[in-house]
Amino acid sequence: MASEGDASASVVAAAEGKKPRHKGKHDKPKPWDDDPNIDHWKIEEFDPSWNEGGMLEVTSFCTFFPQYRGKSPPPQSVLSLFLPRSAIDWMPDCFACSDAEKYLQEAWPIVKGALKEFGVACELNLVEGSMTVSTTRKTKDPYIIVKAKELIKLLSRSVPAPQAIKILNDEMSCAIIKIGSIIRNKERFVKRRERLLGPNLSTLKAIEILTGCYILVQGNTVAVMGSWKSLKQVGRVVEDCIKNVKHPVYHIKIDLELESGEYFISDKKKSAKKWQEKLEKQSENTEENKRKREAAFVPPNEDIATPYESAKSTINNDEIVDMAKSLKKKAKEFRKNEEQENVRLESYCNFASNEGSRPKKKLKLSKSKSK
């Protein structure tokens, strides 16, 4: 009987538009449920006043980092005691000799200072090749030890210390994606890993920009830092690339379509949009060709002189007239001078001819006298 009464009450409440009340359920509305100023999805920053007493027990995590990181492999005599020859040849890049220990030793003061702000102690053991973080009595945030664990994990995967320290923020998360066990063939694995990086790391940079994550491909793992949603996207891209399901470029294309909204458009609308763009392009080309054909028949524009230009032209015309007059005057003078020279030349010739004829007359006279 009671169940029937509760059912009828719920039906009546639903008919009246009210929420049905269930027995044993507290359905009182909260004042912050409908407050628009409250973001229910925001991760609030930890306040030390929430845990004034601190941590009662000590929690510690330890992570080993490869002591060898570089091009030369570790001594084969040590590995041959535990692994077969095939396993030695298939060692990841992170177990090659390098200066990892030296870098960690130099960057450890930065890490120690960052953890000290949250009351977390850290220790670097170069003999064992390990990094340890532990809580202290000054630790207030109980979740900060998990963040410290992720910090040393990123440092062991060759993530730079300034970048790895960002994991201590509440909005930042990380993931270590293991890609070495997805495919057994070494050559295929190397090619697909290079496909993920792209030429000059262009593909990797595009993925970082679109997802807003920091990605580092090291050996058989991929270290990713970012939000939870971005980590999921990067994990899908990496797995599809290594499994040869889809090239990262297609994921980048999909992300761009999602950003522009084309991803949610149906195929029919996409084809119609492409056809419309094609028609617009054709119309633009026809107008451009028509403009080029008509340009050959357009008469040249006449220069319309401004008052300043007209005055300038009159001044230039006056100068030309004066120059013509001066040239004519010079030509006249030149002609006069030429005529005078011709007259002088004629007179000189006549005088010369006269002088040449006079001695002959004298000779004749002298001959006649002698006779």
TrEMBL record:
Residues 172-254 form the KRR1 small subunit processome component second KH domain. Residues 19-28 have a biased composition (Basic residues). Belongs to the KRR1 family. Required for 40S ribosome biogenesis. Involved in nucleolar processing of pre-18S ribosomal RNA and ribosome assembly. It is found in: Nucleus, Nucleolus. Residues 265-344 form a coiled coil. Its main location: nucleus. Residues 1-38 are annotated as: Disordered. Keywords: Coiled coil, Nucleus, Ribonucleoprotein, Ribosome biogenesis, RNA-binding, rRNA processing. Residues 29-38 have a biased composition (Basic and acidic residues). One of its GO terms (molecular function) is RNA binding. This is KRR1 small subunit processome component. GO terms for cellular component: small-subunit processome. Residues 101-170 form the KRR1 small subunit processome component first KH domain. GO terms for biological process: rRNA processing. Component of the ribosomal small subunit (SSU) processome.
